[in-house]
Structure formats: structure tokens, C-alpha cells
Amino acid sequence: MILVAGTPGDVHGLVRPVAERVAAVMSVADVWVFISPSSHASGREAKVASSYPGVRRAVGPWEFLRYLATGAAPRGFSRSGTGVILHLGGDLIYSVDLGRRLRYPVFAYSSRAMPGAKSVSLFLVDDERVQASLIARGVAAERIKLVGNLMIDGVGVRVGREEARSRLGMEQHERAIALFPGLRRREVSVTAPFLFRAAELLARVEHNVSFILCLSPFVGTASLEQLFSHTKLAARIDGAQARVEKSAGPLEAITTEGVRIRIETVLMYEAMAASDIAVCTPGPVCAELAYLGVPHVVTAPLNVPGTVAVPGVSPLLCSLPFIGEAFQRRAVDRLKSSSRFVSIANQRAGRMIAPEIVGRLRPEDVVIPCVELLGESARRDKMSRELREAAGLAGAADRVVQAIQRVVLSQQ
User: Fold this and answer.
1) Which domain holds residue 97?
2) d(CA 122, CA 377)
3) Which residues in the chain land under pLDDT 50?
4) What pTM did the predictor assign?
């Protein structure tokens, strides 16, 4: 079985739950992950995917491209008599080309509309909206299977607030804000100082508040202090620098004003469940927070073009010298004029549940909605219920694996 993905979001939100479920119910399956080229890549996708249960090995983008172009098989890989390719993100053409080379059927999971490629044997879709869109594009109904929201199947905690806080060693009475600065190192170099400054401002007006910075495995913990003190980028977003304190307990970032922010790299779902509210960038974390019912603010500070991944905004075009900012402004204007949302939960609901703040921002722009949420428990409760409703149908990984099993059995 081959899982194809392109970005940190694809790998974390889609590959991981499928790989874990395959390992649980198809222990004899030989699972490979092929990482396709993407302008949103972190460079650590193959390393992270290789660590997932049941994955034999993850193949990086250059090795993948070489295989498609020359037929030179990746190290340790060989075609077997039966197999399936499951497209989980990135450009569909890479999965289709791989299917032609290996003569395997191609399945494609999608949480949004995509062209109905004739080479795709089965579309596995998030909800009825995507199903209807594919049918409108000419895909036969029998080639579409509704499976649910795959991203929420990766949420690795089923505990309440009290137990989550106990695992984290937190006091039950303190208010907690979880901070999610993104999935890629360059993105974090911009958003972490931005969020540090927001934390400083919040600490001035909100007492008994603790902060947890949840750090993606695609970022890693190497050279964190250098990452958190990128003065050139921090100045462009009015951010705060921080030093990293390493002690017997959890890592902490200590900002210029002395605000202590716990750095969590393992118990991230516990941090979600333990938090009163969260602040995050667009990505799978929006779906995960929605599933857990955590009220949150989605922010995309685009002060440094091309660093924060926003749907419909090309990082390559936006990072071009001199004209990048113009591209970004136009893309964001189109995004706003089309009433499209950057949060997955808001997209699913078709309306604004979690506040979204996108564009050239200052930390104060995030502080205001956070203060409002912290001060209105009834609003948090209402948002929590609506987010859970918008999260979608759980159990998608099971249904995806069942569909794959049927194909594998038919090949034998």
C-alpha cells in the first residue's frame, strides 16, 4: 500500500490516522509513504512519516520524482502483485503517474472539490458537499464513497479537561491558552514571536493565565532559541523575542517581558483539551480543535510574504522579491471578496464560528478576540458546541481502510 502526500498538513492530518489504522487491522500490509513536491513543504515530511506505526519507509520528493522519471526504484521498494495507491494530498498527477507505473488502482481522499481524474478508481470524500461537487464535475456516483473527516481521526486523546490538566501537571483553577504557531520552521519563525507578543499583552490584562506553545514535529527542537529570536522577521510583525530555558521540567520560552510559555512537543492533544481557548494558524489543527470543542481564534499574519500557509495564497509567488507582497495582497483580497474561510471548521459550517484574522496584522489584533472569549463563558460554550457539530463524521480511517481491504481482496 502506498500513501501519497505533499505537505506537513497532509502527513500529520491524513497519513498518520490511515497508517495507524492500517497497522491495527492490516498488520501484514507493506505500507510506504511517497512525499510529492510541494511549495508548502517543511523538508521533514519523510522523516516524520517514517516514524508512524506500520510505515516501512517514507520516500522524499526527489527520490519520488526520480522514480517517476527514470524507473529507478527507491531504496528497498519493489512492486508486488497486489497494491493500492491512496492519494492524501498534493498534486493528484503524482499519484496518477505512480499508479500508471505500478499498475495499481488509485484512490483519492478529498475534503474539497477536485477534478474528476479518469485514472482515479474511487474518490473517498469528507461530506455530501464534496460528493455533490464531484458528481457535478462528471464523476459517476459509484466512484464516490462518503467516509467522513479523516483529520479528526488522528486526535490521540479521549480525556476531559481535568484529566488532561493532570497529565500536564497543571492546576485545575488556572486559565490556559494553547498557541499553535504552524507546521513549518519558516512559518514558526514569524508566528511564534507574533504570538509571544500577544501573550505579553494578554498577561497584562488577564491574570492567572498560562500559555502552552504546541510545537509541530515538522519544526523540531533544534536551535529553538535562534528560531524564537529572528530579529529581522520579528520586527516586521512587532513580535517579541524569547529565550529557551531547559530544566528538569518541560521546555519553556521566556519572553522579553518575562512571560513564561511552556513548550509542548508530545502531549499536544492534552494541551488542547486542557485549554480554555486556543490561537492557531490555518491547518489541520483547526479541525482537531473543533472536534475537541475548544474555542479558538484563527490567525494568519501575512506581514512576511509566503511564510504562513493560507488556502489560495501561493507561497512561491508571494515570496518573490519586490512583487511578492503585491501578489499576496491580491490573493487575500480575492479570498475576502469570495467570503471563503481559512479555517477548516468554518469551511465545513459555511459560516464564521471561530474568528479569523488574516492579513497584515499586529499582535493586538489577536489579543482583542482572545480577551472577549475569555470574558464570556456563555459564548465559549456556544462556540464549543457549534465547533463539535461542524467537525464532521468520525471513523473515516476505518472506512478508508475497509475500502482498501476490499480492493486488495479482489486482486488476490
Assistant:
1) 2-148+393-411
2) 44
3) none
4) 0.90
